[in-house]
Amino acid sequence: MIREPLLDFQKIEDRVEQIANSFKPVSAKSNNSNWTALPFTPLKPMLPDILYKVVSRRPDYWKEANLKVRTDEAFMECMAKFYKTSKIIGKGAFGTMFDSPRPDCIPNIPKDVKHVAVKVEILSDYYDYYQSPAAVASAYTITKKAASLGVAPNIYDCFISVNENGMPVIIKVYELINGTAWANMEWKSEAQKNRAIADLEKKIIKMNKNGIIHHDLHTENVMVSKSNEVFIVDFDRARLVKEEELVEMPAFNERRPWSSSPSHKLLGPDVLEFVYKTLLEEGSVVPSRPVSQTRKNKKEKRT
Ligand SMILES: Nc1ncnc2c1ncn2[C@@H]1O[C@H](COP(=O)(O)OP(=O)(O)O)[C@@H](O)[C@H]1O
Ligand SMILES: [Mg+2]
User: Fold this and answer.
1) Contact, 117 vs 175, CB < 8 A?
2) pTM value?
3) What is the pLDDT of residues 243-260, one digit of tens each?
4) Which residue is closest in CA terms to ligand 1's atom 9?
């Protein structure tokens, strides 16, 4: 048994994966989890993330949204080269944007393209609506549509891999815009800025008229190219109007219809409880000792 598992995350992950795979739902309505009543171990708060990490590397988790998982050796070698030869052009909380010479391992880039913009985004935790397979696939489709309207850079590819630390990542490969985010623009003249404002207005109207709501328009998600053409980027939160109409409160009240799919069931509270219980029962994790009475309590008892 794994007795010192808390430091050996690889072992814990492997064991969590085995246990999760052996989970069989008892009935459709087996969702009354007793998770909070289970004894505490230092692993407990981390387990949802570990389970999510394990599940989000599984090809079947992404397959339903038609997203490939690429972790084969040749691909990882190609990515190692990618990290060496590319330049960081933007860094957010989970994602890094690179300017990269066309990587050999990404087949969907048109032949004449020499440089691409590649976004590598770490999968953070399982409640992140925007990183669910359906949401990633939807952002890809909407970006393609925006690109075909001429308001956004094209997206050539989108797939799942792992980074150098084994963390699952979403990789998006875009047409590289040779330009500057609006937020960092140093306008040469009022006239130049006014032309850009007019172009932006035209493009927002075009995008909206074609049923795309961006949901994250701000000055870092608008780029101005060297030839003063405006491009809207980052459609990760975008939705189509017809999808907005399906929810009661657009952008707030998510229904997540895909969460009932088989691979997502592995992230449910009953699986979490099953995995944790099994780890405790087999002794792979050891409950913490009950917290001893505080001095104050002891004093109160004496008097
Ligand atoms: N196609 C592109 N070409 C060049 N730079 C880009 C491109 N798309 C985005 N960027 C730059 O990279 C930054 C981060 O990209 P973005 O998609 O907005 O990711 P994030 O989720 O980190 O906001 C943007 O603010 C923009 O400056
Ligand atoms: Mg952005």
Assistant:
1) yes
2) 0.81
3) 776 654 444 434 444 455
4) 233
